[in-house]
Amino acid sequence: MENRKGSGVKKFHKHINRPNKEDFVFGVNSVIETLKSEQEIDKILLLKEMKHVEEIETLARNRGIPVQKVPMEKLNRVTMKNHQGAIAFVSAVNFAILSNVVTSIFESGESPLVLILDRITDVRNFGAICRSAECSGVHAVVVPARGSAQINGDAMKTSSGALNFIPVCRETDLINTVKYLKNSGFQIISCTEKGNDLVYDADYSLPTAIIMGSEEDGISDALIDLSDFKAQIPLKGKVESLNVSVAAGVILFEAVRQKMKQA
Hints:
four-stranded mixed beta sheet, 2 domains, elongated
């Protein structure tokens, strides 16, 4: 396993993520104290009609944590305990800084492989993708701050522990993230049925970022427009698309096949 990713990057990745004991905390004071701690938070739900929550909103904004104003019914579906109109979803991982990961990979002499997940909302799909990503030598998984699956215990379980070893980077704007990667020398490959290229045509020995799109409507047009390749997986059956976690496995292990052939 050490030879797969290289000793330098492997040291950087080792046990970078830590699972937490709970998936959420509730109550105004508990949410505030969690925001003030170093605990990673996926998102915060606040009651729509709730007033005097400026401290929560300010702390969340300063940390780049999304806040959603929701009706009481949604809060009660999470917990019927005395949540006081405030619930914070705690992440099962510690998020990494993408620029630090990229710098570390280049300094190790490796060619980076990054996976960008555009609005993957199903927790089990997310976990399965991260399992394939870790097994195929992906150096980092990038998710948007909004519109992404909660990284909770279910995601950790579905990943079979892979989330303990692969950095997850949460970015506020995937368009700017892709532009940063392009400026850093990455080729951008969108895995989409809208493309004319095949996933087998790209050269994965180059620094590469692969984009996988949402379960409902695929990759956003803005990200596709920034891509260097629009690569599709050839299908022979009557069903028009693969599950996104299966599609991710196909393209990632094409990258593995090419790298093994070139080694």
